[in-house]
Amino acid sequence: MDLLQYLEELAVGVNRCEQKQEPTAEDLVRWNCLFGYPASEALDVIVRLRANINTHRLSDEQWSIIKTTKGAEGYDRESYEHQLQLWSTNPSRPSPLRTSNSTSSYVFKLGGPFPDIESLQHVVGVSSAEARVGYGEDGHANFARVDGPTKRVIEEWLELQSVPVTHRPTFILLSQSPKDLSNTSSHPTIGIDSTLPQHRMRHLNHSFAPSQTEYPVWYFFYGTLMDPQTLQNCISIPYLPHLIPASIKGGRLRSWRGKYKALVDGPADAVVHGYTYRVGFADHEDCLRFRETQAYEVVRCRISVDNVEGVKEEIEGLTFRFRDPEELDVD
User: Fold this and answer.
1) How far apart are CA 238 and CA 247, in angstroms?
2) Rounded Cα gap, residues 36 and 175, in angstroms
3) In the structure, how many helices (H) and strands (E) does the chain have?
């Protein structure tokens, strides 16, 4: 890089640092979806990136070339610059975790060809799109939530209508912990190979608990969600939740990114201590799954607690298991 190019990039960096405001909720959602950062970490990373005038910036010309493609993947200019920085410091780092199957959910800000939820539902059907209220760059904003197949329908409709790419919505993948509980086996369960015959259906009336849509349902927490204030803020309830000391078997705790606890499968007799809480509603569970992101998955477990007589009692419940142990820190 010659001196003139370096000075031009530095000037761009200074200019953009001066123009940037505090990260918005929309920014935090985007970075959580793309990189798996919890809101607090996303806020810290964005603020530091914006304050660093030496951060490599894409020129207007470079961004204009890739904006449509990368925008469709959920990036804006700033988040893609961060992705390039991650790849440059660790070329072996995998791409952000994304999935295009029918269980994926996306949100986008209403406007342009879809000024309101009714205009969108006219194209994709009433049951295929849900309205959501949130905050965008200009304050209060309305969003739509759709699944993967509906997203493809919208994209095809926009193409058929020849809507300019500059007027098309930017889809953001919601990073939510998958939950897919089998009703014919114990899959998935912490510490158990549920493909083995003893963990399958034994008779037609055999049921596995908890079921996919069972509420209330007990959850076992082993990380920051053991803090009542953190849990209260996550599920937005007006009182401090009552957490009960508990433990599970078949797992072990490891470290992720140096500061997060990650539950993985362990020996059958391995014990993990934590707390349990009875989640009453699907909406509260959704909040928990969004907080844990796609880095984790919901799995079954047997939760051990002391009853009022001080005797151990086992409860069928759920917990969050880390999905890719290869990403975890070396023990």
Assistant:
1) 27
2) 7
3) 9, 11
Q: What pLDDT sits at residue 32?
A: 75
Can you tell me the distance from the alpha carbon of 251 to that of 312, in angstroms, rounded to the nearest whole number?
19
Handedness of CA 135, 137, 141, 142 (dihedral sign): negative
Token pair for 256? 């992720």
Pick the closest to residue 34 from 104, 85, 107, 95 (CA basis): 95
Q: pLDDT (tens digit, 9 = 90+) per residue, 25-44?
A: 778 777 877 787 777 788 88
Q: pTM for the whole thing?
A: 0.59
For tokens 């549920």, name the residue.
194
CA–CA distance, 54 with 6 (Å, rounded to integer): 10
If one counts every other C-beta atom within 10 angstroms of the C-beta of residue 58, the result is 19
**Integer angstrom CA distances of residue 4 from 17, 83, 291:** 20, 26, 45
Angle at which helix 60-72 crosses helix 77-89, to 10 degrees, equals: 90
Q: Where are the beta strands (DSSP E) in 250-311?
A: 251-256, 260-265, 271-279, 296-306
Q: Which amino acid is at 276?
A: T
